[in-house]
């Protein structure tokens, strides 16, 4: 009974895969926040180096992974894929469950897959400092790690609720040499405005992004880095799916079902896009399921519309599933899933019917994560618990239907910095937020009008 499916370093992908090449129609245009007309590459230059802007816009199917990036990836990649024999047994399911484990990276999640190339391209372009936001702390940690390797200063705005919940994430960022600030902060005009209105504001990813962008646009040597959502971030994450395809072949099977959790969409896309592209080019088709929290139900209850990526409305407008850029999700424990929007490429794939989306409350996700930990040994990040829950439900469906389907899910990170959340769960202190229609309508009423 083989448990681990391991690739040799020589089998690590040399190219990232771009789903844009296989979309039947191009993605809807990205719009300038002021003119609301399509942006040109130069509009994005205050924020990103030219090489990343090119990756944002390219429709080439394969983008070469630079050797210095591959060299860092080799610290933990190829990442292992496991067969969850003990979880299958605990569930009594005939399904075969596999998981790709991204928690083996130095930061503990999939996030360095994009942090490393973003730091590399910025370094090449002469950038001295990067600013960014972080929710759970996983992305901030990853960019801090990447900054330390490529000699860049990093300033991280961490959503205040996570900053307070997870002091050790901040300590790790500082160990890598970064400066971690609770957002909203006094460092930016936007942060000061939010605090003036509500000194106890718990923050949101949308606010943290506005603060990071504000600092970047003020200084030509400072650029901004985003941990999810953008096309180039999703592109970098496809190493996950490309490796998994080889590992499924090693296991002599192909996934009937693929499951990933979605915050901004990057780990889900990383696993699923190479399989979606394979099917779009006439290969085997897998059923793909995105899992999101009921308290921030972007894909299942949001609207597919043009919206801002941040709360201060400084970012370009993209067409995506959104709950409205003013939406502040409740302070539940999967901080990395508390974003009002969804990656435009993931949103577009949803509109094309390339995958299904479901939502779960946090308590049922923790319950799934605890069962996983007790059978497989790894304590998942609260975000990843959503994928675990999705995979378990698929396996239970297989049990009911008597089917031995192959299920592959992305275990996007470990939860070693999230133990306070587990402690609250065991103490019965977690509540499930109900998100009512009125709240949803309110949040969506502020969407910008766009005449495209
Ligand atoms: C472990 C983990 N999984 C998932 C996510 C969600 O982000 P994304 O949808 O971009 O993968 C995060 C975000 O912080 C995370 O830390």
UniProtKB/TrEMBL annotation:
Its cofactor is pyridoxal 5'-phosphate. Its EC number is 4.2.1.20. It catalyses: (1S,2R)-1-C-(indol-3-yl)glycerol 3-phosphate + L-serine = D-glyceraldehyde 3-phosphate + L-tryptophan + H2O. InterPro entries: Trp_synth_b-like, Trp_synth_b_CS, Trp_synth_beta/beta-like, TrpB-like_PALP, TrpB-like_PALP_sf. The modification N6-(pyridoxal phosphate)lysine is found at residue 111. Pathway: Amino-acid biosynthesis; L-tryptophan biosynthesis; L-tryptophan from chorismate: step 5/5. SUPFAM superfamilies: Tryptophan synthase beta subunit-like PLP-dependent enzymes. It is an enzyme of class 4 (lyase). It comes from the Bacteria. Residues 75-413 form the Tryptophan synthase beta chain-like PALP domain. NCBIfam families: PRK12391.1, trpB_rel. PANTHER family: TRYPTOPHAN SYNTHASE, TRYPTOPHAN SYNTHASE-RELATED. Belongs to the TrpB family. Tetramer of two alpha and two beta chains. The beta subunit is responsible for the synthesis of L-tryptophan from indole and L-serine. This is Tryptophan synthase beta chain. It comes from Marinobacter daepoensis.
């Amino acid at each position: 009974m083989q448990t681990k499916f391991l690739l040799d370093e020589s089998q690590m992908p040399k190219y990232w895969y771009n789903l844009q090449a296989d979309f039947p129609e191009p993605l809807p245009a990205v719009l300038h926040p002021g003119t609301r007309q399509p942006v040109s590459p130069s509009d994005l230059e205050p924020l990103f180096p030219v090489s990343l802007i090119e990756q944002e816009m390219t429709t080439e199917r394969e983008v070469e992974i630079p050797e210095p990036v591959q060299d860092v990836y080799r610290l933990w990649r190829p990442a292992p894929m496991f067969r969850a024999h003990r979880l299958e047994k605990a569930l009594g399911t005939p399904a075969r469950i596999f998981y790709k484990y991204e928690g083996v990276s130095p930061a503990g999640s999939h996030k360095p897959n994009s942090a490393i190339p973003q730091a590399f391209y910025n370094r090449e372009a002469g950038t001295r400092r990067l600013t960014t936001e972080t929710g759970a702390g996983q992305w901030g940690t990853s960019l801090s790690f990447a900054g330390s390797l490529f000699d860049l200063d990093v300033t991280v705005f961490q959503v205040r609720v996570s900053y307070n919940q997870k002091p050790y994430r901040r300590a790790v960022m500082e160990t890598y040499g970064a400066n971690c600030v609770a957002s909203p902060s006094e460092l930016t005009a936007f942060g000061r405005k939010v605090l003036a209105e509500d000194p106890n504001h718990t923050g949101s990813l949308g606010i943290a992004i506005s603060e990071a962008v504000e600092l970047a646009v003020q200084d030509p040597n400072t650029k901004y880095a985003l941990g999810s959502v953008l096309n180039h971030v999703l592109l970098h994450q496809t190493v996950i799916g490309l490796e998994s395809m080889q590992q499924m072949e090693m296991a002599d099977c192909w996934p009937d079902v693929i499951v990933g959790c979605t915050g901004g969409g990057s780990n889900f896309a990383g696993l699923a896009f190479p399989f979606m592209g394979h099917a779009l080019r006439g290969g085997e088709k897998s059923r793909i399921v995105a899992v999101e929290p009921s308290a921030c139900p972007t894909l299942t209850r949001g609207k597919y519309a043009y919206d801002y990526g941040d709360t201060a409305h400084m970012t370009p407008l993209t067409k995506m599933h959104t709950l409205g850029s003013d939406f502040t999700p409740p302070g539940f424990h999967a901080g990395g899933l508390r974003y009002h929007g969804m990656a435009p490429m993931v949103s577009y794939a949803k509109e094309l019917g390339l995958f299904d989306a479901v939502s779960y409350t946090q308590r049922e996700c923790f319950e799934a994560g605890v069962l996983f930990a007790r059978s497989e040994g790894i304590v998942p990040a609260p975000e990843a618990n959503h994928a675990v829950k999705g995979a378990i439900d698929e396996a239970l469906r297989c049990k009911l239907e008597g089917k031995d389907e192959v299920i592959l899910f992305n275990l996007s990170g470990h939860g070693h910095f999230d133990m306070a959340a587990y402690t609250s769960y065991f103490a019965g202190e977690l509540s499930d937020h109900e998100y009512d229609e009125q709240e949803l309508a309110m949040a969506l009423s502020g969407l910008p009008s766009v005449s495209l």
